[in-house]
Amino acid sequence: MRTYHTPLDLVRERSPERPVALVRRDAVAVAARWFQTNFKGEVLYAVKANPSPWVVETLVQSGVTGFDVASIAEIELVARHAPGARMAFMHPVKSRAAISAAYFDHGVKTFSFDTHEELEKIIDATGGAKDLNLIVRMGVSADGAAYSLSGKFGVDSHQAPALMLAARRATQELMGVSFHVGSQCMRPTAFQAAMAQTGRALVRAGVFADVIDVGGGFPSVYPGMIPPDMADYIAAIDRGFNEMPVSETTELWCEPGRALVAESTSLMTRVELRKGDALYLNDGAYGSLFDAAHAKWPFPVKGYRGGADGRELEGGLKPFSFYGPTCDSIDYMPGPFLLPEDIREGDFVEIGMLGAYGVAMRTDFNGFGAVETVEVGDAPMASMFGLARRSIPAPRTAIENVVKLPRAKSKKRRRR
Ligand SMILES: *Cc1c(COP(=O)(O)O)cnc(C)c1O
């Protein structure tokens, strides 16, 4: 990967024709070390948030040895770039061939499921293996999240005890429970509530779980979505764990995706046309801007003038919306994105905080999929881990109108 000191250096040197992903290894390393230090259990990275090889390698170098995978392609990726790492196949619906290949070819022993049928499928496809770690996926409330992950997966509280019992009987290794409070969870107490709900189901089942897996959902920081301190999430999980019916040997796991990678990557796009306060960019909804289009998140931006004497644009900010390069009218990002009012065709817009579910979502639709990746050495535009050099302007109203975020209670930082 080519390296530039700053995004501005890239613009000055090359005024790139195609969009360029700007990656910061340090941002992933710092987030990973924060989780390793503060989370009192095992950290498994949810690969789907950003399956770039450099992410997997940076995580391994930062001490992360567990990966939450959902497909054979993700398993092969981790096997290639993190040989020997532990993998957990946490997709609750898998093909028999995928289960067999995971178990027999890649040594994957941890599987999740939310039905008796899937549990039987796992046992069948592993040839009646007795050394499986079997994780029951619970359905929990996603009240505090910007993206729900509970509508599709998770056994409800009434059916959970029978499934927990069946799992307990099916293995001599670990039986566990997992849930996902929803992505970009703005309320730390959502974790505690989900743990309480899971604990009640365990009591009804009359079993101890060997693993409590609190899933992902740890937030990043975007304009208009400033979550409580990450330490508050750890504190809520600690309280939840202490209130659960667990034994001394019960393990605590988490599966962060977004929080480990969101800050790391920004995208350098070019303005191909300006029409009033709409900018037509060379990347969009079918590229790295899925969330900007579909969830209408107003990501943080910076403007640059290209050429050898290029510079970061400064001065009076004005709200803009973006159109992407495809011919589809869905390819529209309403923003508002605050940029200097003199921005024009040929200028560049760097869009920040796209490391999670941004670069991972690209398609080749309409011939616009290509993106180059380079490394940069500047700080991310915003940070949950104290990395950012400036805070981001926050057009609060836009995001709240769309995702109807619950008001997070303000909290003092807790110290243990
Ligand atoms: C997507 C996913 C995650 C990661 O979620 P984030 O919100 O990115 O932290 C973790 N676990 C499972 C099972 C998932 O599907």
Automatic annotation (TrEMBL):
InterPro entries: Ala_racemase/Decarboxylase_C (IPR009006), De-COase2_C (IPR022643), De-COase2_N (IPR022644), De-COase2_pyr-phos_BS (IPR022653), Orn/DAP/Arg_de-COase (IPR000183), Orn_de-COase (IPR002433), PLP-binding_barrel (IPR029066). GO terms for biological process: putrescine biosynthetic process from arginine, via ornithine. Pathway: Amine and polyamine biosynthesis; putrescine biosynthesis via L-ornithine pathway; putrescine from L-ornithine: step 1/1. The keyword rRNA-binding does not apply. The active site is at 327 (proton donor). GO terms for molecular function: ornithine decarboxylase activity. The modification N6-(pyridoxal phosphate)lysine is found at residue 48. It catalyses: L-ornithine + H(+) = putrescine + CO2. Residues 263-351 form the Orn/DAP/Arg decarboxylase 2 C-terminal domain. GO terms for cellular component: cytoplasm. Its EC number is 4.1.1.17. Belongs to the Orn/Lys/Arg decarboxylase class-II family. PANTHER family: ARGININE/DIAMINOPIMELATE/ORNITHINE DECARBOXYLASE, ORNITHINE DECARBOXYLASE 1-RELATED. This is ornithine decarboxylase. It comes from Caulobacter mirabilis. The lineage of its organism: Bacteria, Pseudomonadati, Pseudomonadota, Alphaproteobacteria, Caulobacterales.
